[in-house]
Amino acid sequence: MRIDLHTHSTASDGTDSPAELMAAAVASGLDVIAITDHDNTGGWAPALAARPAELAVIRGAEFSTLIPGGGRLVSVHLLGYLFDPAAPAIVAEQARLRDERLHRGMGIVDRMVAAGVPISRQQVMEIAGDAPVGRPHIGRALVASGVVASVDEAFASYLAGRSQFYVPKADTDLISAVDMIAAAGGVSVIAHPRGRGEFRALDFDTVAMLVDHGLGGLEVDHPDHDDAARAELGSFVERLGLIATGSSDYHGTNKVLRLGQETTREEQLGRILAASSGVVAPVGPGGSLW
């Protein structure tokens, strides 16, 4: 069984619609896919409506969080699976984050416009559509305007944290996010815990503390992780009894990543299913609750 537990659609910063994502999953030979858009669940309903009969769908989201580390606040992405989307704390926080993303995105655009970069607020809003505004939407505007050749190039220059145009956003406290997902019956897994600067905060003792708050697992196999990172995270998983996942972090054409590039073992998915409360059941082959 081929299982990919971290993908994005146009409900956040992917380029495939939820329906296109379902079709692409089958074309890629996947048996199970999780739709995990950033800070929202807007892709769930259209994904399930378009789900091919042979594909199982795990509903999730990727929460943007912060935790202190190395004398600064470190960005950590947290995957939540099978949580109740109507849980009041999650509804309120996702609404706040949507507003925060819009404020931050327009701030970046305004700085670029003031510097003569040929993009506009309207252009970025049209690219984002109904999705929360994110830096990839600004990157696509930069590509469309001929400023850069790719979204990857945009992130390496105009959208980088060191850029003159960068504007921070106030993400959720990581411990609070773990608590929220657990309270909503879901299972939390830290996304790409060695993909960026997370090493500054996510040492063994911090991960162990998060387990005490209900953290379920770590995304060990990720395209951003080298062999050393996978070995280190594997040791964390073994010592703490955590779930180990593998995922592509697919974003369509926004990133050079393939669906199913990294996958999760079937027994690890079974642990996620067993650990969830069943408030939101996964949908399996034939439409059954799986």
UniProtKB/TrEMBL annotation:
It comes from the Bacteria. Residues 3-67 form the Polymerase/histidinol phosphatase N-terminal domain. One of its GO terms (molecular function) is 5'-3' DNA exonuclease activity. Gene3D superfamilies: 1.10.150.650, Metal-dependent hydrolases. InterPro entries: PHP_dom, PHP_domain, Pol/His_phosphatase_N, Pol/histidinol_Pase-like. SUPFAM superfamilies: PHP domain-like. It holds the Pfam family PHP. This is PHP domain-containing protein. The lineage of its organism: Bacteria, Bacillati, Actinomycetota, Actinomycetes, Nakamurellales.
